[in-house]
Amino acid sequence: MAKRDLYEVLGVAKNASEGDIKKAYRRAAQKHHPDRNPDNAEAEEKFKEAKQAYEVLSNAQKRAAYDQFGHAGVDSSAAGGGGPGAGFGGAGAGNFGDIFGDVFGDIFGGARGGAGGGGANVYRGADLRYNLDLSLEEAVTGTTVKIRVPTHVTCKPCNGSGAKKGSSPTVCSTCGGHGQVRVQQGFFSLQQTCPHCHGKGKVIKDPCGSCHGQGRVKEQKTLSVKIPAGVDTGDRIRLAGEGEAGENGGPAGDLYVQVKVRAHAIFSREDSDLFCEMPISFVTAALGGELDVPTLEGRVKLKVPAETQTGKVFRLRGKGVKSVHGGAVGDLMCRIEVETPVNLSRKQKELLEQFQQAMEEGEGKHSPRTSRWFDGVKKFFEDM
After folding, report:
1. How does pLDDT run across 367-381, given as a tens digit for each residue?
2. Domain spanning 1-104 has what CATH number?
3. What is the CATH topology of the domain spanning 268-382?
4. DSSP-assigned states of every residue in 288-336
């Protein structure tokens, strides 16, 4: 399959600035991210395609090679050796983490080397995810909720050092505090994590009794989360620094509160609009009337004209939702369902039979759709 132009993938011009490219990638990544499109293979493919395009166009050298030679100039390095089809793991995973972290603020967390790249390994704490169920009313108006999150936090007795109070870690004698050692294999010199200190650069001879030398302890913490008005299923709220504590002095990760809005007994929601089905009697449908319609702000009156049919939609402007992403307040769409009466008494059945006879005397003018349908059926059999 022919590869698409990378500028076309991100929807930018060939002279687009670095900032424009980053914004375009952010939009594409948010739209097609697997978290927003579960079990959607097409969205996942577009997400990967946008990632690969950003990998090339955000790098000045690769972009120049692509501009001059097209895909042939970057295929060998476009996805960290993983090729266009590289997934989230494997050879392309490192590049993916770097790009996504650059654009979205290290959403996946993970290791980050110390200053200069030569010191002990400093690890950013893992990001956490909390699934929060909200009612439609809470999502529309906004609320504040308290959540309890299990996480690793910095050990207070040792202040994260891992060493017993009154002592301190010592520099690893194997790696000299670098966290890495060089190993000679024939003509090649390889750099590996120090097997003695496991990359920390320091050794704890007298570990802290609370964290057993880890510098972190498990804890349940309670957080107060402000939910903005207009959120919807799939939206996420980022709480910076509320994830797991980092290691070796690394920064804490973030906490992402994933919103899910529970199904409502009356309304369903699509973007900023609300929808409801409103059953009415066939008498009201035929003669017209006035109904009380529920909205999130209270009841409103709706005039139903005579001869209203099932499927008719009435729009109540401004009775929908104002999305957290901006834009005008949506509308409430009321779909009419004409209900057939049930559990009729003998007298009611007799009255309906008399009504039906009177309708038939009208020679179809009272039920034009029914009349046209039967005329079509008759013609169908005649033409066979």
Report:
1. 767 777 777 777 777
2. 1.10.287.110
3. HSP40/DNAj peptide-binding domain (2.60.260)
4. -EEEEEEETTEEEEEEEPTT--TT-EEEETT-S---TT-S----EEEEE
